[in-house]
Design brief:
about 40% helix
Length: about 170
């Protein structure tokens, strides 16, 4: 839905997961083997991925100053199930956060969120204000006050609704 570029680093995974649901069209890419494979999810893990996706969406709506779209498992509760550790390279001493168990989507998302938190980019990943959209986008605006995934689509629709509500 968005013409914006992908989020930086590991946030691209979070953005990609949240955007597997097209609310307006009513389609869920997690219903397809291709999307599951692309995200490294088995069919058995699809329900957990959906739960994680909607908890992420609620957090991204909060980043944009909006209430959750529906009742969800708190994101912190889910991420607590994916412990991280500090991995230190033996050769150069560099350090990075790493999932305690490689592979599971939850661990990869927890790593992405933790790295974005350290980088100061976590709150720039937001969900579109439009109730028929809630698409994830990375807010690159200088003030960090972006409201819509697309100014040309969701933003234009919102402005037109406000204009029409004013009446003649």
């Amino acid at each position: 839905m968005s013409e914006r570029s992908a989020a930086p680093g590991g946030l691209a995974l979070v953005q990609s997961l949240v955007n597997t649901l097209d609310i307006e069209a009513g389609t869920d890419a997690l219903d397809t083997p291709e999307a599951l494979s692309r995200l490294g999810i088995t069919e058995d893990g699809a329900a957990g991925a959906r739960e994680l996706r909607e908890s992420l969406r609620a957090a991204l709506l909060a980043h944009a100053g909006h209430p959750p779209h529906r009742a969800v498992t708190p994101l912190g509760t889910l991420l607590a199930r994916a412990p991280l550790y500090v991995a230190v390279d033996d050769h150069d001493g560099s350090a990075r956060l790493a999932p305690a168990t490689e592979g599971p989507l939850l661990s990869r998302v927890a790593t992405a969120v933790a790295e974005a938190l350290v980088a100061g980019t976590w709150t720039r990943l937001k969900a579109c204000e439009s109730e028929t959209c809630h698409w994830a986008y990375y807010d690159r605006s200088p003030a960090g006050r972006g409201r819509w995934c697309s100014m040309q689509v969701c933003g234009a629709r919102a402005k037109m609704r406000r204009y029409r509500a004013k009446g003649p």
